[in-house]
Design goal:
This is Alanine racemase. The chain has 363 residues and is of the alpha/beta class. Helices cover 25% and strands 22% of the residues. A hairpin with a 5-residue loop joins strand 11 and strand 12. It binds pyridoxal-5'-phosphate (PLP).
């Protein structure tokens, strides 16, 4: 019997890709699949990403892995290359590399490359994490354009820090900064992540870079993917492995953090922080047992968590449990856990079995 399982719906992913494309007709869509497709398992998702114009990852190793899986489309390295040897590999494998620092620029200019490097200049428009200042853009573009082993088409990209906050003044400033800095820029421009794409019309430009929204999850802490017409790709499931009578006044689990105030029945679910379900998840967080919302109670253990099924519960060992998915948004669980949905899906461990389905074919 399969217990901890992340079931991934390829139909939902195709649907989301279609919805997001509709938000920026004419723009190329870069599917951000870093961190193993946000914990969803990139290899299994590739068939549903066929419509994406390009893929993006953070690191070189992730890009090389995608090439090994047979991806022939452009792949963007969002953090770029960290040394001369990385650049050789990136050029060889035709990976697009962001260039965000003087060190990266110097490395590109210093060493001839086996094939033309597809370069993107990273601009800092206000995130203050990576990138060149807007006033440096012209000079850097000129240096790259004059470099014989840099491909002719050079792009420019930047990243939002607060696009998930409606009406954020910082986002308005970043957008205005990007527009004015790139007004005369000859190559493709890219700014919007999921939040930009969903909440900031005017940030789309030539290449959109959605990550979290592709997986059907809203980038801000308040809304849900469904509010934007998106469908959750992941259902995190498990099963009851014990159902027990539990007396009033008795605690459960490590540290005795929760006590029942009535006689009830407790369910033990095969899901714990060893699977990536956070130990910090509070009592009261909803869990779906047989499609019914029940509260998590007591500390989450490494391999198990407990739920209060209620005094009249008829649930049996082996019955299905949903930790998050279409019927219980991961955004809601994240609010109970004091984190963001990104972290919940990405932190699932290898013990959780990833299975892939296509709900369109099940109809
Ligand atoms: C991760 C990342 C994205 C995607 O962000 P989402 O919020 O998941 O849409 C886009 N651009 C860059 C540079 C990133 O690092």
């Amino acid at each position: 019997m399969l217990t901890a399982e992340a079931s991934l719906d390829l139909a939902a992913l195709r649907h989301n890709l279609h919805v997001l494309r509709g938000r920026a007709p004419g723009a190329k869509l870069v599917a951000v699949v870093k961190a193993d497709a946000y914990g969803h398992g990139v290899a299994g998702l590739l068939p549903a990403l066929a419509e994406a114009d390009a893929l993006a990852v953070a690191r070189l190793e992730e890009g090389l892995h995608l090439r090994k899986l047979g991806v022939t489309r452009p792949i963007l390295l969002l953090e770029g290359c960290f040394c001369a040897a990385d650049l050789q590999l990136a050029a060889q494998q035709e990976l697009h590399s962001l260039i965000h620092s003087p060190e990266q620029l110097a490395a590109v200019l210093a060493h001839p490359l086996p094939k033309p490097l597809h370069a993107w200049i990273k601009l800092d428009t206000g995130m203050h994490r990576l990138g060149f200042l807007p006033e440096q853009l012209g000079d850097i573009h000129a240096q790259l354009a004059a470099c014989p082993w840099v491909a002719d088409e050079i792009g420019v990209a930047s990243h939002f820090s607060c696009a998930d906050e409606p009406g954020s003044a910082s986002t308005q400033t970043q957008l205005a900064c990007f527009i004015s800095a790139t007004a005369d820029f000859p190559g493709p421009k890219s700014l919007a992540n999921s939040a930009g794409l969903l909440y900031w019309p005017g940030s789309q430009f030539d290449w959109i870079r959605p990550g979290i929204a592709l997986y059907g999850i809203a980038p801000d802490g308040q809304r849900c993917g469904a509010d934007e017409g998106l469908r959750p790709v992941m259902s995190l499931r498990s099963r009851l492995i014990a159902v027990r009578d539990h007396p009033a006044g008795a605690p459960v689990s490590y540290g005795e953090k929760w006590c029942s105030d009535r006689p009830t029945r407790l369910g033990v679910v095969a899901m714990g922080y060893g699977d990536g379900y956070p130990r910090s998840t509070a009592s009261g967080t909803p869990v779906l047992v047989n499609g019914r919302r029940v509260p998590l109670v007591g500390s989450v253990c490494m391999d198990m968590l407990m739920v209060d099924l209620g005094p009249d519960a008829q649930d049996q060992v082996g019955d299905p449990v949903l930790l998050w998915g279409p019927e219980l948004p991961v955004e809601e669980v994240a609010r109970h856990t004091g984190t963001i949905p990104y972290e919940l899906v990405i932190k699932l461990t290898p013990r959780v079995v990833r299975t892939y389905r296509d709900s369109d074919r099940e109809r």
